[in-house]
């Protein structure tokens, strides 16, 4: 298969089970999708397999954006590089001491023991040198000690990745830069990460954890990006490869190699960007994203077209200080394994993944997964899985559900299969409540945007459970995260901690610092070839009440005063936490977001449907959660549904790579953009 168009864009998203590749033709508006199995042993191969299903050559491709969870998986599976840490003398145990607290989920577990640190003590070295909190050098860096630390870590321990983090370097990075220069000159083949190249924010432990994670995944990501870039160039790609950032936007592969941690959640970020685009284009004020893939389920709140964002997150208990979408993840997806634990049914977090996959794949899997259960309940067509490109065995799935779930629980197969979805929904509701109800948001006021391979199947169930009136299934939902990557601009963020009172005098005093951050932004955008007229620089303050620990981000606008900033902060504080305080404000961090605008494909309207009622292509028995019975479900091909078509449930809509299930108390309407809008079902 080859691409004929002279203006095409590609985006590729690697998931835990499948690689999604999508192409967009600027001239015709055609979106095309191809899925290939993820290849954990050689991830670039899976990307090339997916791309190869859309085009033999990439000579005519004018944009290529990629999102990957390779770095995330390296952290979760402990498959990163062996890292050495160089820090201040006397602080080598900072990573291990951490905050000396017990995670909230283990608060009442008296047997709790913290996991071992990512870097063992023998790979952590302290060197003399000190900078105070104001950035003043009070003890020069011992350069010979840095050289000796490098010798011990590289020559004696054989490490190939080093992390540098010194006290108060956010205020003055001089010592970190000097140490990095010494190490790179002595060991040019060794990867060196410095904390201030990633974040200029206070809190030593969090900054140490952040730079350690960067060093941990840097060799893995750099090798992967280099291999992929070379193979894509061999296929004719002449335009730069761009990598999605965890906080939205894209950056060139060259910048991604310099800051690999910024890509750690780039796959889920694509879906959030795409959802924000749809929310703005269609004037949807409140949207919850519902992205369900093979191994995980991700949710994010979008209000007025803007997704929730945080500047501190955690991966498997390791904190990191990078801008990132406020995405809540549940370890449950199409490949999640259903199992019995002391008589209780559980779903996930472990997954069958791409290898061996669900039992129905007949590739060695023996434990039933969510995909196997969906086959048992009649939601999936065994002969049409992945557009018929993949043969699956529904009988094997049913046998696994019977022996592994139904018989131990003492129920029939249908009851056991339906219970799997009930357990999965209960876990999902908990995650959604964290980002809605616990923040004084009513989920019933939101539309649920469902995507990912399993999102359209699960979302109508979730909407019924939470009383959400509207569920939207966009075009090509199985590759919607990749579609979102096509909507991305180039973005990068620069920040520095200041810790000063929020006054007009402070706002005037930090003007030079803002100018410095903006200069860094201009430099990065210029290096990525962004024209001056396509650049935007956004100033933001992290503000808190005096005496608080955490802050909220407030965008600055021309003419702002301390009073106007504090007023907006108080308004946002009351909306988030239910109260405001008469306390003075404090500026914690200055931020500048540098945005390079890129051309984007727009939404295209479909012509009105020629008939009022579409014709089903088949009918099969399936489980209706509205009645608790197995009943006939008409089956429709999505390609035959036109704008204005309406379908009453129960019904199934198939599109090869994804299946939408509408239950007996729900109704589906196709909107003018070809999206499926499901209503009803709420209590």
UniProtKB/TrEMBL annotation:
Q: Name one Pfam family in it.
A: Hydant_A_C
What is the designated name of this protein? Hydantoinase/oxoprolinase family protein
Q: Which organism is the protein's source? A: Nonomuraea ferruginea
Pinpoint the Hydantoinase/oxoprolinase N-terminal domain residues: 9-186
List residues of the Acetophenone carboxylase-like C-terminal domain: 507-673
Q: What superkingdom heads the lineage?
A: Bacteria
* Residue span(s) of domain Hydantoinase A/oxoprolinase: 207-493
């Amino acid at each position: 298969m080859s691409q004929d168009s002279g203006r095409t864009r590609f985006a590729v998203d690697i998931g835990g089970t499948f690689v999604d590749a999508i192409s967009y033709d600027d001239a015709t508006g055609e979106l095309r999708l191809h899925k290939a199995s993820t290849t954990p042993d050689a991830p670039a191969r899976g990307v090339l397999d997916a791309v190869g299903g859309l085009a033999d050559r990439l000579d005519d491709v004018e944009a290529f954006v990629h999102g990957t969870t390779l770095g995330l998986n390296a952290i979760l599976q402990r498959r990163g590089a062996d890292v050495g840490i160089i820090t201040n003398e006397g602080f080598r145990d900072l990573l291990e001491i951490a905050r000396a607290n017990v995670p909230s989920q283990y608060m009442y577990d008296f047997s709790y023991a913290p996991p071992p640190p990512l870097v063992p003590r023998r790979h952590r070295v302290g060197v003399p040198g000190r900078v105070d909190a104001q950035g003043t050098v009070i003890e020069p860096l011992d350069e010979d000690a840095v050289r000796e630390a490098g010798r011990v870590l590289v020559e004696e321990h054989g490490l190939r990745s080093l992390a540098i983090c010194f006290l108060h370097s956010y205020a003055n990075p001089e010592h970190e830069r000097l140490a990095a220069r010494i190490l790179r000159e002595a060991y040019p083949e060794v990867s060196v990460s410095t904390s201030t190249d990633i974040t200029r924010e206070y809190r030593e432990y969090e900054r140490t954890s952040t730079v350690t994670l960067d060093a941990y995944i840097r060799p893995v990501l750099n090798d992967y990006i280099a291999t992929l870039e070379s193979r894509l160039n061999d296929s004719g790609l002449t335009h730069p490869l761009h990598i999605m950032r965890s906080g939205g936007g894209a950056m060139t592969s060259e910048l991604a190699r310099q800051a690999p941690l910024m890509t750690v959640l780039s796959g889920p970020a694509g879906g959030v960007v795409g959802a924000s685009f749809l929310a703005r284009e269609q004037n949807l004020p409140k949207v919850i994203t519902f992205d369900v893939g093979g191994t995980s389920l991700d949710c994010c709140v979008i209000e007025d077209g803007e997704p929730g964002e945080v500047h501190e997150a955690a991966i498997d208990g390791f904190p990191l200080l990078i801008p990132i979408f406020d995405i809540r993840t549940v370890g449950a997806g199409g490949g999640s394994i259903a199992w019995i634990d002391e008589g209780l049914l559980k779903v996930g977090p472990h997954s069958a993944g791409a290898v061996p996959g669900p039992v129905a794949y007949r590739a060695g899997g023996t434990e039933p997964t969510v995909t196997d259960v969906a086959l048992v309940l009649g939601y999936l067509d065994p002969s049409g899985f992945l557009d018929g490109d993949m043969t699956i065995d529904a009988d094997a799935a049913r046998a696994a559900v019977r022996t592994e779930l139904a018989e131990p629980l003492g129920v029939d197969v249908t009851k056991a299969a339906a219970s799997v979805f009930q357990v999965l929904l209960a876990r999902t509701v908990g995650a959604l409540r964290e980002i809605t109800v616990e923040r004084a948001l009513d989920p019933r006021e939101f539309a649920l945007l469902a995507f990912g391979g399993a999102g359209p199947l699960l979302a109508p169930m979730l909407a019924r459970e939470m009383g959400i009136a509207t569920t939207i299934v966009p075009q090509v939902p199985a590759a919607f995260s990749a579609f979102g990557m096509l909507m991305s601009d180039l973005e990068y963020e620069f920040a520095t901690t200041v810790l000063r009172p929020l006054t007009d005098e402070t706002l005037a005093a930090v003007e030079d610092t803002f100018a410095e951050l903006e200069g860094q932004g201009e430099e990065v955008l210029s290096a990525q070839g962004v024209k001056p007229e396509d650049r935007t620089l956004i100033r933001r303050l992290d503000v808190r009440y005096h005496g608080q620990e955490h802050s909220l981000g407030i965008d600055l606008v021309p003419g702002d005063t301390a009073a106007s900033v504090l007023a907006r902060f108080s308004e946002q504080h009351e909306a988030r936490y239910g109260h405001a305080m008469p306390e003075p404000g404090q500026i914690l961090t200055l931020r500048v977001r540098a945005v390079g605008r890129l051309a984007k494909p727009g939404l295209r309207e479909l012509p009105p449907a020629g008939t009022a009622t579409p014709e089903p292509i088949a009918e099969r028995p399936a489980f209706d959660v509205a009645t608790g019975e197995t009943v006939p479900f008409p089956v429709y091909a999505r390609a035959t549904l036109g704008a204005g078509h309406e379908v009453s449930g129960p019904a199934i809509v198939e599109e090869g790579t994804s299946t939408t299930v509408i239950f007996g108390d729900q109704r589906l309407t196709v909107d003018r953009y070809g999206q499926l809008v499901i209503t009803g079902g709420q209590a």
